[in-house]
């Protein structure tokens, strides 16, 4: 039983680290708390409740989490402080020892945040974890993580993020996500369709499908990702869908063909490669080789020559010799992709990658990142240049009055509308534009409005 009077009138501060999934979940926490009468603390205002949704993808992420917790505790000395997310799951004991933290919720428990808060505030909370003086921990072992915290929320801009899947069964040797988020699981297509209809009623026009390993969708319900895509495509009020990231071995030819003629799935792909060297891919226990990856890119280009293709690459992982890195560089140089998201490898406790003896030093990691980022810049610039002068549709995002507006084309080219041309009513509207040359900091193409789309 939840007593809403304990929530009413309280002010909450939120802090999120990590991926889109975390941001989407935090935004859902905010929505749930808002429904209970909790408002968001304004800038400089002291909060009664702090929610910190953490990430543990790298050592730096862990460090940032600890810093954020300390800062929020310091700035909100009377607040009830809740820490959840991947770092809270993996390092719950360490988090519970941080001065000022009241409640640590693991990945299985965060779905029941409101219940936990209600119990804590009414003094009926049972303690099933370590109780470090005043801090209570609720966290189950990874294998027991079963809940799915649904989330469909507006990001800080125009787009909505729909969580379609959580967890991962792949256990790549460098990754802690399966330990932090548990095994792959998903809700039913029916429930996701209902969430999207509700978002459409709130005004959503573009939705990004998020998850940890989205292509694995259907394991829990016996459905398939393809079924989900088709069901969502039928919801006419949503004009655009993007898929945040798909493992190459799960990106089916059927899906590529479908996206090329679908009503609302955009010609925009984000595919993690991690390495172009088959030796390294084997060490990582990835589920494909460079040949399969190249075939997928070729297939996308065959159906959608103008698609934006973003690729994740990890540099400096254990076992990446200079020869392996050169193979990766040459592979990516010859691949018709649009942008590289480059991540330096970070050692994670408990991962099997630590058994690989060959270590890459930090200086080499930086040099390799730099070379790949330069390659990425060259590719993105060439892609953007192809569309200068083209007529296309852009979904514009809210901008402060008197500032230029930004938005994206269907194939994810960032577009800038000058402050003179920007209008409040263009927010969340599809507009027909003509693309011009690069803006002053070369992060977008300038545009002139032709008409409403
Ligand atoms: S596919 Fe690999 S890298 Fe991605 S979340 Fe799963 S284990 Fe981690």
Automatic annotation (TrEMBL):
Residues 10-122 form the MTTase N-terminal domain. Gene3D superfamilies: Methylthiotransferase, N-terminal domain, tm_1862 like domain. InterPro entries: Elp3/MiaA/NifB-like_rSAM, Methylthiotransferase, Methylthiotransferase_CS, Methylthiotransferase_N, Methylthiotransferase_N_sf, MiaB-like_bact, rSAM, rSAM_horseshoe. The keyword Transferase applies. Keywords: 4Fe-4S, Iron, Iron-sulfur, Metal-binding, S-adenosyl-L-methionine, Transferase. It comes from the Bacteria. Its cofactor is [4Fe-4S] cluster. The keyword Ion transport does not apply. Residues 154-382 form the Radical SAM core domain. This is tRNA (N(6)-L-threonylcarbamoyladenosine(37)-C(2))-methylthiotransferase MtaB. The gene is mtaB.
């Amino acid at each position: 039983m939840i007593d809403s009077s304990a929530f009413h009138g309280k002010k909450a501060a939120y802090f999120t680290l990590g991926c889109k999934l975390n941001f989407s979940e935090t935004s859902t926490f905010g929505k749930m708390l808002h429904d209970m009468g909790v408002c968001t603390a304004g800038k400089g205002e002291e909060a009664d409740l702090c929610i910190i949704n953490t990430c543990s993808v790298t050592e730096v992420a862990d460090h940032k989490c600890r810093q954020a917790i300390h800062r929020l505790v310091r700035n909100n000395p009377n607040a009830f402080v809740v820490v959840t997310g991947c770092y809270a799951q993996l390092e719950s004991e360490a988090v519970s020892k941080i001065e000022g933290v009241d409640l640590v919720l693991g990945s299985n428990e965060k779905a029941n945040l409101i219940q936990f808060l209600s119990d804590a505030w009414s003094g009926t909370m049972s303690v099933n974890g370590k109780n470090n003086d005043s801090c209570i921990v609720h966290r189950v072992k990874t294998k027991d993580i079963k809940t799915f915290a649904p989330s469909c929320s507006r990001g800080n801009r125009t787009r909505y993020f729909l969580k379609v899947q959580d967890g991962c069964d792949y256990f790549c040797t460098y990754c802690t996500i399966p330990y932090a988020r548990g095994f792959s699981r998903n809700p039913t297509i029916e429930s996701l369709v209902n969430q999207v209809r509700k978002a459409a009623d709130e005004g959503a026009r573009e939705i990004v499908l998020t998850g940890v390993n989205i292509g694995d969708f259907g394991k829990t319900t016996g459905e398939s990702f393809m079924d989900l895509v088709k069901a969502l495509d039928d919801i006419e009020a949503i004009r655009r869908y993007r898929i945040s990231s798909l493992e190459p071995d799960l990106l089916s030819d059927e899906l590529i063909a479908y996206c090329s003629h679908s009503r609302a799935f955009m010609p925009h792909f984000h595919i993690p490669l991690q390495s172009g060297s088959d030796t390294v891919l084997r060490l990582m226990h990835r589920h494909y080789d460079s040949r399969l990856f190249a075939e997928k890119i070729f297939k996308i280009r065959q159906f959608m020559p103008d698609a934006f293709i973003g690729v994740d690459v990890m540099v400096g992982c254990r076992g990446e010799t200079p020869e392996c890195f050169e193979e990766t560089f040459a592979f990516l140089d010859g691949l018709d992709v649009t942008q590289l998201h480059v991540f330096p490898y970070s050692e994670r406790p408990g991962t099997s990658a630590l058994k690989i003896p060959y270590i890459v030093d930090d200086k080499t990691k930086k040099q390799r990142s730099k070379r790949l980022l330069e390659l990425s810049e060259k590719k993105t610039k060439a892609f953007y240049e192809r569309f200068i002068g083209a007529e296309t549709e852009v979904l514009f995002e809210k901008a402060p009055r008197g500032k230029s507006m930004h938005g994206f084309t269907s194939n994810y080219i960032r577009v800038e509308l000058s402050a003179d041309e920007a209008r409040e009513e263009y927010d969340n509207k599809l507009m027909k534009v003509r693309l011009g040359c690069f803006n002053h900091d070369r992060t977008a193409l300038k545009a002139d409005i032709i008409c409403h789309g």
